[in-house]
Design goal:
This protein is 53% helix and 6% strand. The protein is built from 21 helices and six strands. The strands form three sheets. The protein has a two-stranded antiparallel sheet.
Amino acid sequence: MKKPPKLTGQHDPVFDLLGQSPHKERLADYLALLVPLDDQRRYRPFNELRYRWAPGLDANLCWALVKKARVAQYTRLLPLGDPLQWGHYLLTPLAQKAISAVDRQATTAALEFMTSQIGEHAHFSYLLNDLIEDEAISSSQLEGAATTTRVAKDMLKRKRLPRTPDERMVIGNYKMMNFAWEKRDEALSAELISAMHRVGVEGIDDEQYSPGVFRDNDNVVVQDGEGNTVHVPPPAAGLVSRLRRLADWINQSHNDIEKADYLHPLIKGIALHFALGYEHPFRDGNGRVARALFYWFMFKNDFSAFRYIAISILLRNAPVKYGRSYLNSEADDLDLTYFIDFQCSVILRAVGGFAQAYRKSLAYSDRFDNWLLESGFFHQLTEKQRAVFQVAKSGMAKEFTAANVKQNLDCSYNAASTALNGLVELNVFEKRRIGREWVFFLRPCRNVLAPTGGNECA
């Protein structure tokens, strides 16, 4: 990746240069570049912009104009590294869209409205519990875990012990996400960061990860897929002090909209994500901890819906862009806008996906209930039985036990067992003994959503 030119010695006299030949003959073309965004309102790095400037323009001078426009709008964000540098950013249209989506669809209040529908549509709790697993699985896959989503979900739902290091990674990430939720009311500290790492990686390969232990040497680097070093973290000396400095900044309130230092929690959480990746405080597992800390911060600021919003699914599908957003920010004097914008694009899609899954779930539920009413089968089922029946027909889950129904529908074990056995008596489900537990399955049915006036599952 080509780094942007340093502007020392030529940034201030930019307009003097524009008055000299041959630049003054292209003055209008140059001045059109005195804006922070490109003509499609995107925040592009030098490495991309230099191919879009008109032929014959001086690339360094073009960049100086773009940079001048950006610097005029910078907001100082947080201190990073050693020697200390301030990261800064510019609030782009994309970031504003993501903030709007998060405020409308990912708050605790928005989630409470969604879950208020569970009384009528109890199957929605199955959707939520299914979604909560996605971040742990996709974050592991992003780090190279060679396990399929189906196998990983089966392991988590059955609470099966992991059989491979990759499965242990999934279990570790799952525990770490739950830990982030449980610790959402605590202040950030170096100790909390250490504990989060320990929860996430302990038992995978302790010699490789050194669970909960900060690195004490400088032999940790970040490499690309070809083995080239792309990031050298700040020195190990002073690492704990820098993490405490980061914690002080995170723990400082920036929520007062009347103050000049107001900062939306989404931007602050993304900055925390960046800072952990930049410091690379552990021998391994830094990316997982950085993403978990982003979630922790969103939970802390009453964005509870993020329990069910998996950003790593999208990051896993674009690992090169994810890595490049780090590198662009580091290469351009810690302009975190590149990283923030990329994360905002991912979060915007992830929040939209969560909202769409909710709407589809409720629409499917309405269709299913209408069929049950028309078939005359509705009143033969309890609410819990209708929920389990619908989940089975939708394919959201294919196997059921009293234990997982108890967890998903928040009822007693006896109530879950009664509901399942009732479905067997109605010839909707069948059951088989697998190991020490009874496992229930939907009987083969014909087109259950087609109103027929009878029970096709009999």
